[in-house]
Write a structure and sequence with these properties.
about 350 residues, mainly beta, Methylamine Dehydrogenase, Chain H, 4-stranded antiparallel β-sheet, about 5% helix, globular
Length: about 350
């Protein structure tokens, strides 16, 4: 009877804890992310093309894209066994990719082009016609759903460069009125937990402290708020990604959330040669791209989970429940490397 009584007390206390978490709006703390991965490497030799971004609906449905000279060799698909070139009838030089399902995927790139995949083929969805500018390009595309998609980049002419933002509401693309002169916009994200505003990664060229990278906040007004600004040098710039429905920022080798109009430190990466690219499942399962591999934050500390000593240059990552994909460029050998990790059983 004592054992049963003790078990009943534990069950009651656990139920009360979960009830109080739900009632107070708190969420149970996630478990620390695992680090026991088995790694494999795929190598793709694509003349004049380096893969730049990656997205997928499952480990057997992964897309990797990148700008290149051969415009019919800029979109690649992984079916769980091998990578295949999937070209378009009207070629595109893509820089960003985002999707919502295996038959609803978007890419954006140079010459102000956006394309859509409907599960069968890619087709052109938008081509910008900005008469006042000689050139336009999208650097990133991202959305909360297929009726709220954002694409950011720049417009360029002989002596003027402006940041560019377009929005798709499920019916049409419209240019958003923003002020970002003498620079471009490279990324846009939004979290559901802490703010209704959008956050952008931006670059200013040749301003008073030299080329600068910055984090901006867009609340619907043309003049975006500058949240942080740094010189554009190795280890002193910015990036961001949505993790657990919250935008997580990297600033000078540290991870932050942004709440109540201030950055709140999560942790600092004390290893040297840290890039600013991150991706994660939870705030206790974050992968951080390094110059010589990948480090991992599990809520307690940061450790290497993959190291290499070649000429690879990691650029982006993608996560599933048990799988991780990471793109790398090898400029010396002109090859694309896809690093694949799977958790041990």
């Amino acid at each position: 009877m004592k054992k049963l009584f003790g078990l009943s007390v534990i069950m009651i206390l656990t139920s009360l804890f979960l009830f109080n978490c739900e009632d107070s709006g708190l969420e149970p703390e996630p478990n620390p992310g695992r680090r026991d991965y088995v790694w494999e490497v795929d190598t793709l030799v694509i003349p004049y093309t380096f893969l730049h971004e990656i997205w997928g609906s499952s480990p057997d449905d992964v897309w990797a894209i990148g700008p290149g000279g051969d415009l019919d060799k800029t979109i690649y698909h992984y079916n769980g066994k091998k990578w295949n070139n999937v070209g378009m009838q009207r070629p595109i030089s893509p820089k960003g990719i985002w999707g919502f399902s295996s038959d609803d995927i978007w890419i954006a790139g140079n010459e102000g082009k956006i394309a859509h995949y409907n599960g069968t083929e890619w087709y052109r969805h938008l081509v910008l016609d900005e008469e006042k500018f000689a050139y336009s390009a999208f650097e990133d595309i991202w959305g909360e759903n297929n009726q709220n998609i954002w694409a950011v980049g720049y417009l360029d002419s002989a002596n003027t460069r402006k940041g560019l933002v377009y929005h798709f509401d499920g019916k049409e693309w419209k240019r958003i009125n923003i002020v970002h002169n003498n620079g471009n916009l490279g990324k846009i994200r939004k979290g559901k937990k802490t703010s209704n505003n959008y956050y952008l990664w931006g670059l200013l060229e040749n301003d008073f402290i030299g080329d600068s990278t910055m984090i901006l906040e867009y609340s619907g007004q043309p003049n975006m708020k500058v949240l942080d600004k740094s010189r554009f040098v190795f280890g002193e710039w910015h990036n961001m990604e949505v993790i657990e429905d919250e935008v997580i920022f990297t600033i000078n080798n540290s991870l932050y959330t942004y709440k109540n109009n201030e950055f709140n430190l999560i942790t600092t990466n004390n290893f040297s040669d840290a890039y600013q690219g991150i991706f994660g499942r939870t705030k206790k399962d974050i992968f951080w791209l390094m110059d010589n591999g990948i480090t991992h934050y599990n809520g307690n500390n940061i450790e290497y989970i993959l190291e290499f000593h070649g000429t690879e240059h990691l650029v982006r990552g993608l996560l599933f429940e048990n799988d991780v994909f990471s793109l790398a460029k090898d400029y010396s050998n002109y090859t694309n490397i896809i690093i694949k990790g799977k958790l041990k059983n």
